[in-house]
């Protein structure tokens, strides 16, 4: 027992803060981008919609390392764009916390986008038509009718996005690396603790932390979106 | 005042209608899927016709020839949706406020409060639509529309979502609102009774086209087509032969009933219609008067439907509706019945 307390006391808690910060920032980013993309996609013709939707959903169905590959292709300092960003504008993505955010955002984005889109599609189109005949502008209808009506779906999308961004591993390790106190997230900490050091105690603590957060998130989601439905069985 | 010519091809269904209406209530009557709601949507600007012309009170909403197509926001028409389309996350008052088009926030709020009172929604202003009864929802939706002073009112099956006991009451309330409005109103309905009670004129829809249009009494007297006659509640139809004109009357043989009948005026048609409420007992033989035998009887809540046929004739029986009192007084055995002019109509397919 004393042993465990000692470990807790000496534990470097930075992975928790890095993961939480990354999750929060990536969720905020994905939230607005996802709503914007979902609205844009629904205004397209059916063929263009199918193609664009496929593109936006790809990060969810591909292995995260494939996303990492493309992200490095863009942001690596040895590639034109990444080199331009670094040398001309002083922005470095690889091996930085910014890389954590970008990797997590790219991977988690489809969850926000698809949930928002599904929620928008659930909105009775007569509400939109009614808004138009009443003289409300399209923007006003979106802000005052569509978003509030689609709120439960949007909220659950945001929660899932946060959960996914929090635990991102593959693309993050490739783009941002695992620099302790800088880009070392919980997921990466768990991997290195075991693979490099065989340290099951440290890994286990982080596993417990992750499970606690994930469970909390799912319960929170059920509470916010489940409503006051009667028991069915 | 509305002028509308609307053509829209939806592949399996084609809408092709043209009508005008003054400051009156024009009902669009027809079965489901015949293009009534689509017409309202085209006028409101929710869908765009392939071609046509729509103008309300002289303002052109749509003109395919001159490339005019006003957005719904600028058409300024009130459309009452079948499910009312109240915004579920807004309170009653907020819903009504969305219909107020001009003024400061305080002025719009005052206008909405006044409308809430006018539509008997006092005390419900802060409720959500889901916390209202069906009738209250309809009042709220109407208040939201009327508060914006629309130039044209359109009601899409306004009572279909209500229980029957509420329906009668809301029908009276809505009719009062429409009379008070005084402008052009289009009322979509599949109920002949509702339409007859509420409207001045009726346009009969059939498969995307208008079969007949006219003042309601005229239309019920002389529907012109089989579909229109069926929608006005005529139940008995027969093929017609030997049609000729004599002394200002039209004489014809109703093949399915085995009777020679006549109606006032010089008419034409391939089908005869016989209204089931109009036949009467006769004392003596005469024009349009025949011996009838009772084939079967059906009891409705407030009347009997008697199925009749000429004795010895092998055609299909036709319906005659009589009140329970009249039925009790009917003589036994064969009946001598006269079919007056208002019971009969000549129709085209």
Structural notes for this entry:
The complex is a heterodimer of chains A (233) and B (349). Chain A is 78% helix and 0% strand. Chain A has twelve helices and no strands. Chain A has 233 residues and is an all-alpha fold. Chain A is globular and about 70 Å long. Chain A starts with a helix and ends in an 8-residue tail after the last helix. Chain A has a single domain (17-184), classed as MetI-like fold (Orthogonal Bundle). Chain B is of the alpha+beta class. Chain B has two domains: 2-222, P-loop containing nucleotide triphosphate hydrolases (Rossmann fold, 3-Layer(aba) Sandwich), CATH 3.40.50; 234-347, no CATH class. In chain B, strands 7-8-9-3-10-11 form a six-stranded mixed sheet, sandwiched between helices. In chain B, strands 2-1-4-5-6 form a five-stranded antiparallel sheet, with helices on one face. In chain B, strands 14-13-12-15-21 form a five-stranded antiparallel sheet, with no helix packed on it. In chain B, a hairpin with a 2-residue loop joins strand 4 (51-56) and strand 5. At the A-B interface, helix 7 and helix 8 of A face helix 2 and strand 7 of B.
Into which percent range does the helicity of residues of chain A fall? over 70%
Q: How far apart lie the N and C ends of chain A?
A: 44 Å
Report Rg of chain A.
Answer: 21 Å
Q: List unreliable stretches of 5+ residues of chain B.
A: none
Shape of chain A: globular
Give the total of beta strands of chain B.
Answer: 21
Query: Structural class of the helix and strand makeup of chain A?
Result: mainly alpha
Instruction: Write down the Rg of chain B.
Output: 24 Å
CATH C-level category of chain A: Mainly Alpha
**CATH fold group of chain A:** MetI-like fold
Main beta sheet strand tally, sense and closure of chain A = none
What CATH architecture label of the largest domain in chain B applies?
Answer: 3-Layer(aba) Sandwich
Biggest sheet architecture of chain B: 6 strands, mixed
